[in-house]
Amino acid sequence: MTNSDPPLLNHYGALSSHSTRCDDPRSQLIVKECRLPLIDLSGSSRRDEMVRQACVEAICGASSEWGFFQVLNHGISLRLVEKMRSEQVKWESPSATCPKQFSWSKAFHVPLTKVSDKACYGEFVSLREVMMEFTAAMSKLARLLAGDLTENMGHGKEVMDNLCDESTCFLRLNHYPARPISPEIFGLVPHTDSDFLTILCQDQAGVLQLTKDSKWVTVKPNQDDLIVNIRDLFQAWGNGVYKSVEHKVVTNAKMERYSNAYFLCPSYDSSIGSFKEPSIYQKFTFGEYRDQVQEDVRKTGYKVGLSRFLVNGTDERCPVDAHFQAIRPN
Fold first, then answer.
1. 147 in the Ramachandran plot: left (φ > 0), alpha (ψ -120 to 50) or beta?
2. In CATH terms, is domain 2-326 a member of 2.60.120.330?
3. For tag attachment on the chain, is the N or C end more exposed, with fewer CB atoms within 10 Å?
C-alpha cells in the first residue's frame, strides 16, 4: 500500500498560490444540492434485449450529460460494503492529517497487484480478506460499465479488457476528518480524473461537489448506491461524447468522512485514440498523458489535461487532478 499524505504535497506552495488567484466565477456561486441520475443495473443482466438496451442507454446518456451517475442493484452486497467500511475505519488513524496540508485528507492507494500481499496489511490481517473480495467485486462492476460504454460506441465489450491492466488499476481509501478551521481548505482540490472511470463508495457525509451547467452542485449522498464518474481517457476515446467533469471534496466542520474509490486504468502503453473521425484529440498513450500531466503540475501548479492534446490547440485550465499525482506506488 502506498501513502499519499497529501496527494499534492510536493506542489503545495504552487497550488496554494494559484488557488488564491483562480478567477473561476463558479467559485462565487451558491452551491445547490442535486441528485445524480440513478440507474438500476438489474436491467443490464436481463435477457430481454429491450430492457438491457434501455439500461445501457441510461448509462451512456448520464455519461454524456453529467459525467456522473449513481447505480443500484450493482451486485456488490450491502454486507460487503459495510464490512469494508468497518475495517477501513479501524485501520485509518485520525492523526494522519494536519492543518498544513492543502488537501485535508489521508489516502492510501492499493494497487490490485498488491491486494493479496499479506505484507501490506501489518497487524490489520482482517482487512486483507475483505479487500480481496471488495476489489474483485468493484473490478467486475467497472468492466461491466466500461463494456456498456464501449459497446455504445460500436466496439466490442472485450476492447476494455484488452486495454486495462491490473498493474495500473487500484483502490484508494480516503479519510476526511472533521475540519474546524478555515473553510478555504478542500478535502480534495478541484480536479478532473485522468483514466477511464471511477466507482466511488461513500458514507452519508455530503461533501462531494461537481460542476453542472457551469455551476457547482453538491451530490446528495446515499450510502446504499455507488457513484460512477467518467474520466479523461473516456472523454478522449469517445471523442467528447462522454464528459470528464471537474469535481472536488469539501470539508465538513462537524462530521468526518470515509470513502473508497476504484480506478479503472489502462496499461501505460495503451494507445488512446478517438473512436471516430474527425478526431478532436491527438492520439497518445496513457504513459504519455500521465507524464504530461505531472510535468504541467510541476511547472505551473495546475493541470492542463486533455486540452494539451486537442488537435486544434491548447486551452489551459485551472483544476488539478489530485488522484493522478499519487497512483504510482513508492
1. alpha
2. yes
3. C
Burial label for 278, CB within 10 Å (0-12, 13-18, 19+), is exposed
For residue 180 the three cell numbers come to 474546524
CA R_g for the chain: 19
Query: SS3 of 318, please?
Result: coil
The grid coordinates listed for 263 are 480506478
Q: Across the 330 residues of the chain, what is the mean pLDDT of every consecutive 10-residue run?
A: 40 39 45 88 79 93 96 93 88 44 63 89 85 95 93 83 85 77 61 91 77 88 88 94 90 76 93 89 95 91 90 55 36
User: Residue 267: helix, strand or coil by DSSP?
Assistant: coil
Cα gap 36→106, rounded to integer Å: 26
Q: Write the DSSP symbol of residue 157.
A: T
Domain ranges of the chain: 2-326
- The Cα–Cα gap between 171 and 24 comes to 31
pTM of the model: 0.81
Distances (CA, A) of 173 to 4, 76, 258: 10, 17, 8
Q: Which residue has the cell 441528485?
A: 35
How many Å apart are CA 35 and CA 66, to the nearest integer? 11
CA nearest 263: which of 323, 203, 174, 178? 323
Pairing of the two strands 257-264 and 170-176: antiparallel
C-alpha cell at 159: 476492447
> 3-class SS at 145?
helix
CB contact at 8 A, 272 and 242: no
The grid coordinates of residue 314 equal 491548447
Look at phi and psi of residue 265 and say left if phi exceeds 0, alpha if psi is from -120 to 50, else beta: beta
- Sign of the torsion formed by the C-alpha atoms of 265, 39, 48 and 45: positive
Quick one: CA dihedral 211, 250, 168, 41, positive or negative?
A: negative
Of residues 185, 189, 169, 166, the one with CA closest to residue 177: 185
- What are the grid coordinates assigned to 116, written together? 493479496
